[in-house]
Structures are given as C-alpha cells and as structure tokens.
Amino acid sequence: MLHLRVVCPQGRTADVTGVLRDEPGVAHLVVHPGVAVHPAGDLVEADVARECADDLLGRLADLGIDHDGGITLEQLDTVLSDRADAAEEAAPGDGADAVVWDELINRTGEESRLSLSFLTFLTIACLLAAIGAVTDSPVTVVGAMVLGPEFGPMAAVAVGLVLRRRDLVTRGAVALAAGFPLAMLVTALATLLFDAAGWLTADALDALDQVDFIYEVGPFSLLVALLAGAAGMLSLTSAKSSVLVGVFISVTTVPAAAFASVAAIEGRWSEAGQSVLQLGVNVVGVVVAAALVLLLARSRSRRRGADRALSDG
C-alpha cells in the first residue's frame, strides 16, 4: 500500500475527506486539524491501495489541493491491518499492475537530469567497460553495465513521448546526447594512456572472443533491447526496482560506447562503427519498447476509468 499525506486549507478539508471516504481502497483515514503551518491548514492522512492511487491523485488535483496545499505519497513496506487488507481487496484491479502516473513522471524526471553525478557514473561505467573489453573480461563488462545510469534518461524519453511531455523528452535526450560523448571522450583519452604505458596494442584486440557481443550487431541485438526496455518500464511502473538490475545487464549501451572509443583510437574503424550502431540500436529499442508498455498501461487505465464511471452512473 501507499501512505497519502494531504495538506489542505481548512475550508477544503471536508472535500478532501469526502473524496477519500468514497474510495473503497482507502484505510486508516486520519485528520489533524490545524497542524499545518506553511501553508496553514489541516493535515489529512490515509493508507491507500496502489491500484486506486492514480485516480485519487487526479480527484485531489481537481480540487486544486496541489496548488493550495500539498500531496505526498510514500511506499509502505509492511502494513498489518485487517482494514488495509479489506481496502486492497475492494480496490479494482491489481496493485502490481497499477501505474501511478505522477509517481512515474517524478521518478523518471529526477533520474534523467544531466547532473555531475550522472556524468560521473556514466564515465566510470564506460572506463570499466573499456578495461573489461581490452582485457577480454566479461565480468568487468557486466559490472560496467550495472553501474551505467543511462536507463533513466531513456525511460524519461519514453514517458515524455507517451504523455506528450516535451520537457521529459528534452531532459532525457539532452542527458544522453551530452553524457555519452563526454564519457566516450574520457575513455578515448584513457585508451591513449593505455597505449603510452604499453598496456594495449591494436593486435591485442584480435584476441577478444569473450566480449565480441559488444560490437557484433544482429537481429538479437534489437530483440534484447526491446525485451529489456519492456522489462525496465514494467519494473518502474510496478515499483519493482530490483528488476532493473537485470535490465542494466541486458542492455549493451555503455560497453558499446566504450568499445567505440577504444577501437577508434586503435584505428579499428569497422569495430568502432559497429559499436556506435550497437549503441544506437539499443537506445532506440529500449525507448520504443518502454513507450509501447506505457501505451498499453494507459489504455488499461482509461478502460478502468470508463468502467468505473459506468458503475458509478
């Protein structure tokens, strides 16, 4: 379940509690009169089933509470209550399949910001992937794939396309367009240092047989990207973040970017070009699949809303 906190003007508390009372998926409704200081007002709290949270947020927003007060949601890991169990049973649908759109927008928007930490993680991931590639170490490459933060911007682009949020598309695209070239440039400079130290030669790349999946583009490259994009978006919408680790390991974006830099410095232009193509195929595949998952989820949400409107009528 989710914990809902609403700060509202005292004159609107009755409207807020009315919305919450009418929702069968709500339990533990509590009103704290006059405790809110800035903005001044009442504090209303309740535990809500995830499958009804999106509809509740929409109704509260229709009351203007998001402008005159504030609305917050928190994930509850453990709830021991017969009332809560009854609320989850009464709520339509399945909580694991429910999409809280405002939560998704906030999460993808935050994770797609072009920040120093994003650039640092992406650069370190590319350096690790480059080291794993030149040493023919798939374990190191996998570690780099887990570390890479690039799924956040790709998810933001998908959400922005489906919801027609230009700000999310722009934010995610800028993070990818700025992050990968910078990380690849640093990786190229590191490759020059490896050459100067005698740690790497062009002939050494001929012996790679454990990590050739990085630059070998084929039909399975797109298929894996599509499956990873679908799984990643499902994990975001269902709040099962642990699944994202598997998604990161599946997507060959960071290794491809890193190997493109290494191959270019060593004059292996064919492998460099194939790596860039692999990067593009994976990015496009993830975004397309994630957007398709969101379109299906949005269609289900609209059907549930229509069915509920008919039953209420």
UniProtKB/TrEMBL annotation:
UniProt KW keywords: Membrane, Transmembrane, Transmembrane helix
Where do transmembrane segments lie in this chain? 114-135, 141-163, 175-194, 214-236, 243-265, 277-297
Is Nucleotidyltransferase there in the keyword field? no
Under Pfam families, the record lists: DUF389
In its keyword annotation, does this UniProt entry include Transmembrane?
yes
Task: Return the InterPro entries for the record.
Answer: DUF389
Q: Which PANTHER family match?
A: AT15442P-RELATED
Q: What is this protein called?
A: DUF389 domain-containing protein
Organism annotation = Pseudonocardia spirodelae
In the record, what lineage is assigned to the organism producing the protein?
Bacteria, Bacillati, Actinomycetota, Actinomycetes, Pseudonocardiales
